[in-house]
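hey
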């Protein structure tokens, strides 16, 4: 079996790792000419770590990360530093904060050499029993045949946009600045988020004792800001410590603003024929639950678990000398200077039916899992960004009245996940 993956982000790479571990031939097509990863942090909760375990990278991930320090407090605070709700981080389940680059490098390092085709834009132009993916912008592209194509091409997925019922993209109404300190900063025993009126600030320690932070403001999507870092200091510089210390320890040139966007509604399907959507292409959500990366990792582990038994039967048939491998496979035309023509390792009729069943199960399982989480993330963001005095006061009162145990249970409920057993 051969699988083509469009997109070399966390979702695409983790899918490739899981599939290769199952003995599946994989090619990843990435339009950029080299790895490019934003300099920010990523929250990986217990469910994401379980997905990394499933693709064989959990222990290596734990080796390059660490959990929050014992006794560190989390929850929500007011801008003056008073806690609205307090949850000891050890009660929040397994949580690791990792620099995106570290996770990206870990995934790349787990792949066989040559798996990722850099500077290789690709697009899907068919979705039936035979899938054709055409390259763009290259005079000497190649055509490759695959049994399955995975579209992990992000929020602005060209694949999803070409399907009927694409919900499109929605601006949440708020944008986020993100930064990482150049040096360790004393967090004074507290992390988590601080909520103001239409403003939020989040703090997350990294393994090297530097700190990843984000600052969120309700604002027009394309508002012109002459100096992004100066705006952050203007909005948050007067908030409680260690926020001013974090800003002082950050290189202004490394701070960037990102409009927070998600899908405008649930995608009606994650699958058309032999093409599946994965990660943000399937279920882009706001970062308000810290689950975007974790859900992409779950997608990858789920797809690998569903396709692995088919690949096992395929290898067994090869070992037995079977030549009944006649089903149609997908076609990929990748815009790359590597002008090789490669045929897919097609599967027999039984395997073809099994692939279709596996992709149908992936679609069903992942829509059922991710779409409620996306709705919940959107709700949390709307509550957190309350702007009017009475709404912010009501929000704060509800938070103060909510037991820490209830908050911990809510967080824990997201983390109970295991890959399917086909």
């Amino acid at each position: 079996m051969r699988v083509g993956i469009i997109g070399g982000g966390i979702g695409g790479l983790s899918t490739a790792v899981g599939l290769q571990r199952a003995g599946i031939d994989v090619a990843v097509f990435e339009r950029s000419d080299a790895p490019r990863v934003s300099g920010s942090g990523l929250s990986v909760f217990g469910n994401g770590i379980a997905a990394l375990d499933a693709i064989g990278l959990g222990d290596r991930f734990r080796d390059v990360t660490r959990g929050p320090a014992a006794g560190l407090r989390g929850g929500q605070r007011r801008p003056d530093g008073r806690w609205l709700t307090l949850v000891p981080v050890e009660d929040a389940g397994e949580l690791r904060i990792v620099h995106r680059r570290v996770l990206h490098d870990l995934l790349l390092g787990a792949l066989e050499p040559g798996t990722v085709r850099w500077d290789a834009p690709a697009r899907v132009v068919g979705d039936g029993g035979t899938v054709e993916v055409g390259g763009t912008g290259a005079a000497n592209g190649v055509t490759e045949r695959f049994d399955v194509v995975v579209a992990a091409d992000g929020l602005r997925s060209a694949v999803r946009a070409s399907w009927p019922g694409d919900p499109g993209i929605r601006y949440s109404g708020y944008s986020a600045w993100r930064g990482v300190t150049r040096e360790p900063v004393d967090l004074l025993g507290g992390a988590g988020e601080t909520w103001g009126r239409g403003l939020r600030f989040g703090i997350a320690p990294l393994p090297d004792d530097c700190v990843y932070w984000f600052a969120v403001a309700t604002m027009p999507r394309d508002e012109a800001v002459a100096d992004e870092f100066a705006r952050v200091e203007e909005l948050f510089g007067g908030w409680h410590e260690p926020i001013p210390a974090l800003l002082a320890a950050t290189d202004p040139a490394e701070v960037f603003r990102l409009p927070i966007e998600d899908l405008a509604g649930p995608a009606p399907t994650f699958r058309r024929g032999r093409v599946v959507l994965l990660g943000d292409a399937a279920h882009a959500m706001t970062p308000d639950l810290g689950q975007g990366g974790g859900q992409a990792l779950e997608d990858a582990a789920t797809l690998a678990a569903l396709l692995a038994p088919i690949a096992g039967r395929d290898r067994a048939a090869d070992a037995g000398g079977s030549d009944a491998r006649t089903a149609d496979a997908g076609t990929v035309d990748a815009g790359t200077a590597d002008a090789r023509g490669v045929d897919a390792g097609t599967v027999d009729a039984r395997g073809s039916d099994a692939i279709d069943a596996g992709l149908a199960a992936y679609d069903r399982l992942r829509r059922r899992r991710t779409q409620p989480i996306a709705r919940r993330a959107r709700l949390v963001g709307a509550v957190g960004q309350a702007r009017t005095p009475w709404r912010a006061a009501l929000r704060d009162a509800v938070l103060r009245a909510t037991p820490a145990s209830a908050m911990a249970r809510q967080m824990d409920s997201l983390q109970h996940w295991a890959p399917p057993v086909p």
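The two ends are 17 Å apart (CA to CA). Residues 349-384 form the longest helix (36 residues).
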